[in-house]
Design a protein that fits this description.
Blueprint (H helix, E strand, L loop, with lengths): L11 E9 L4 E8 L5 E8 L3 E6 L5 E9 L4 E5 L2 E3 L7 H13 L1 E13 L8 E12 L15 E6 H9 L6 H15 L7 E2 L12
Helix pairs in contact: 2-3
Length: 208
Amino acid sequence: MQLQDTPEEWRVVATTTPFEGNKTSVRTDDVVMPDGTVARRDYQVHPGSVAVLALDGAGRVLVLRQYRHPVRHKLWEIPAGLLDVPGENPLHAAQRELYEEAHVKAEDWRVLTDVYTTPGGCDEAVRIFLARDLSEAEGERFEVSEEEADMELARVPLDELVRGVLAGELHNNCLVVGVLALTAAQAGSGLEALRPAEAPWPARPFEK
């Protein structure tokens, strides 16, 4: 048996969009089940996201703390953002987010992992990049607003983040997946074996 997720699409006999927001919407599909019955499925339609695990030369990860209203928490996270433009190259989006949220640039980029955040209720796909060889970005800092105006930035040793994840103290999806994936890569084939930054991403196809 090959342990690999495979694309598949069950027949939809009806679909509506009961809510359409600024960036996301809610879709309702009537889906034909294997036994021939029809089940209704509601889910959030999402443009996709990128996230950046930025690792400096001292083995520290760049993290930020931001208020997230749906969960009523300030969460420690890694830089991340939406794929605002359909078909946008995710690497370009990740570089933009690292600049806007941390005023940092990186010379070495690789794909750390790709995930569906909540596939039972949302079609969001996230590509998490590993960024290394960090330096301060040139020019003026990006002007932030709303929740981002209250962000805190820090550089935290990877081991401390892993400890916080396993202790149940850190909960952001991309941070959790990113730091554990990085730890596994370091213990396995090494960071040089990670996929290149422009590796295909079937969940959100793009032009290089």
